[in-house]
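Researcher: Next entry in the queue.
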Amino acid sequence: MEPYSTEPVIIIEEVFPQDTNSYGTLFGGRLMSLMDKAAGIVCSKFAHREFVTISIDTLKFLRPAHQGDLIEITSKVVFTSTHSAACRVIAKRINKSDWKGEDICTGYFFMVAIDSQMRPIPIPQFTPESDEEMKLWNEAKSIREEMIK
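Model: Structure for this entry, 149 residues:
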């Protein structure tokens, strides 16, 4: 079974007042939610299956986003096992005045494909084709192996 798509998914959202704390910066939980959504969508696009989150790992908050910024979230499947996929998710903040972006958060989201009974089901397998893809594959594989221990 071949993947339906190995292309990344990009979501863009604006930071509104209800998304911020008393400092006017984006709530970390709101950002995690957006990143999780992007991971679920890219997995569904990859395998044409329903997915649920089983783990989030190596989540690094690098800098804040502010009210009025745009948040660009890019998610890509970088590793698969029989029933699960790992996505590398990168969030950037974009200032609308110059449209320059800077990374604000990165992480790995592990998702499992499920059927209508919430049981794990097989998915297509991702095959790394470049040195960068192989690096991300190995990184995600190591994280998964630690998680299983």
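Model: The two ends are 29 Å apart (CA to CA).
Researcher: Noted, moving on.
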